[in-house]
Specification:
Number of strands: 0
Strand content: under 5%
Largest sheet: none
Oligomer: single chain
Shape: elongated
């Protein structure tokens, strides 16, 4: 690969990453907005916001989903934990 091809590849790859980042933000927004439904249901069911068994199920789901991928499972779990904490914060705001 010559320098011109490398520059083009770098630019195209960065543009694709930017598009993926935008999609991730949209998905995070949708996921966070669902916290409203969760808190309403939990209130009706007299449930606590924190549900360790649910979080473990999510972690197990992540382990299965990442098993055949070239990504580090524990890193994905950390990302999902951040998202779950964002949702718990949103639920706490609404309770």
């Amino acid at each position: 690969m010559n320098k011109q091809e490398a520059k083009i590849l770098l630019e195209e790859t960065r543009n694709n990453i930017d598009l993926i980042d935008k999609e991730l933000i949209e998905l995070i927004d949708k996921r966070t907005k669902l916290a409203k439904n969760v808190i309403e249901a939990k209130k009706s069911l007299n449930m606590d916001i924190f549900d360790p068994s649910r979080e473990e199920k999510i972690h197990e789901k992540i382990r299965v989903l990442t098993a055949d991928k070239n990504i580090e499972t524990n890193d994905v779990i950390k990302i999902i934990d951040i998202l779950m904490n964002m949702n718990k914060d949103k639920q706490n705001e609404m309770s």
